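Researcher: Let's do a round of design. I'm pasting the structure tokens now; please hold your answer until I've finished.
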């Protein structure tokens, strides 16, 4: 399948690639280790307006395509997960506000989120569940002029550094989505989690004790929380998979370069060993397949199609392919593949997170199975 991008999308690709090559790649290790962008890189990232791409112009967006934003995220992820993950988290708050929020919420929060002046987050997971909204314990109780929220959340990315988040809580008999200001009274970020896939990543617990959310901070109406969660996670899954397509391209490029330069008995391992060639060929076909599938699903989003099943299938596919791609890359590098001096080791570790974040693989299997059982494959 040939992926055809529009002129505007190709321009985005060109400018982000230039930024990645000249400014991000040279400092990618430092950025990854601190999980923070130096000011000048951050400013350049802001000026490119990547997150504005798919949002409407009237709310500070650029009126472009979802594919345009995804192209940029993929290019960034080639060098480092930090900027793309930062943009991804803001998307997870900006998207539900743009789709379900009142004009007040759009006018107040979208501009700063899209320009990265404020940092966003999404808080669903709790100590007892990350998959089942019926088991949510965080509760919202109606009081005069708003809601009192009590409970705790776990594994929330940016919980210690974000300005606002979309938070899901049980309100009366349904799940509701609230905009929570982290500077508000009753919000407290807790223990920071330490993960194998990244060192500086901000992720941890948060606690709400009689946190007051005014009525105008309810996103959608109070019965729509589950629908908002599913729609946001659907596009979020696609954006999240993009990070691993970028990683896959990098793992392949690093492996090709290593296979061409590492020699055995006077010949490069890429030319001497068929086993190395087999791995490179396998990696290439997997990377190309991930890319084609990713942009096929993005094209469906841009056509206004419901991609609930496709996003889950994409996640299943990408999570398993990236594990094998980075494992092949590590093997090609021999012992150096396990050394922190070499970038492939970091890619291998990062790849693992694709299996868990944005929904476990079993849950994706359940979704995909439901889709295929109900409507088949060919559409005939
Ligand atoms: C790095 C990182 C970042 C994260 N960021 C965020 C964030 O920003 N916001 C947020 O809300 N969450 C976040 N999470 C949480 C993540 O989304 C959850 O961990 C994930 O959804 C799985 O939930 P769980 O760990 O509670 O597993 P559980 O839901 O307890 O599942 C445990 C096991 O049971 C299986 N299982 C559960 N239900 C079913 C079912 N119905 N059918 C079949 N099998 C089932 C699962 O597949 C899994 O194997 C993050 C996690 C990580 C690791």
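Researcher: That's everything. Go ahead.
Model: Designed sequence:
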């Amino acid at each position: 399948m040939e992926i055809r991008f529009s002129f505007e999308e190709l321009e985005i690709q060109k400018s982000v690639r230039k930024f990645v090559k000249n400014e991000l790649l040279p400092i990618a290790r430092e950025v990854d280790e601190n999980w923070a962008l130096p000011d000048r890189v951050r400013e350049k990232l802001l000026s490119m307006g990547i997150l504005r791409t798919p949002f409407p112009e009237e709310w500070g967006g650029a009126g472009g395509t979802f594919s345009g934003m995804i192209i940029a995220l993929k290019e960034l992820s080639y060098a480092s997960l930090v900027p793309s993950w930062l943009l991804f988290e803001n998307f997870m708050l900006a998207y539900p506000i743009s789709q379900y929020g009142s004009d007040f919420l759009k006018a107040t929060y979208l501009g700063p989120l899209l320009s990265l002046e404020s940092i966003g987050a999404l808080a669903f997971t709790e100590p007892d569940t990350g998959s089942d909204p019926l088991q949510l314990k965080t509760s919202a109780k109606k009081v005069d002029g708003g809601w009192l929220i009590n409970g705790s959340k776990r594994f929330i990315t940016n919980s210690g550094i974000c300005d606002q988040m979309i938070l899901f809580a049980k309100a009366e008999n349904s799940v509701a989505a609230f905009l929570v200001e982290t500077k508000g009274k009753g919000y407290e970020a807790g223990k920071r989690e330490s993960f194998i896939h990244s060192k500086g990543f901000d992720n941890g617990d948060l606690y709400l004790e009689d946190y007051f959310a005014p009525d105008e901070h309810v996103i959608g109406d109070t019965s729509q929380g589950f629908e908002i969660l599913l729609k946001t996670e659907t596009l979020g899954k696609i954006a999240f998979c993009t990070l691993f397509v970028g990683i896959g391209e990098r793992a392949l490029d690093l492996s090709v370069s290593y296979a061409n330069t590492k020699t055995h008995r006077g010949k490069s391992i890429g030319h001497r060993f068929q086993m190395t060639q087999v791995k490179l060929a396998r990696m290439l076909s997997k990377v190309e397949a991930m890319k084609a599938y990713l942009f096929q699903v993005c094209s469906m989003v841009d056509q206004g199609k419901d991609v609930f099943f496709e996003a889950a299938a994409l996640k299943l596919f990408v999570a398993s392919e990236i594990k094998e791609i980075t494992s092949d890359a590590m093997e090609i590098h021999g012992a150096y593949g396990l050394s922190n001096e070499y970038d492939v080791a970091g890619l291998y570790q990062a790849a693992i997170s694709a299996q868990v974040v944005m929904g476990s693989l079993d849950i994706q299997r359940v979704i995909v199975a439901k889709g295929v059982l109900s409507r088949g494959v060919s559409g005939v």
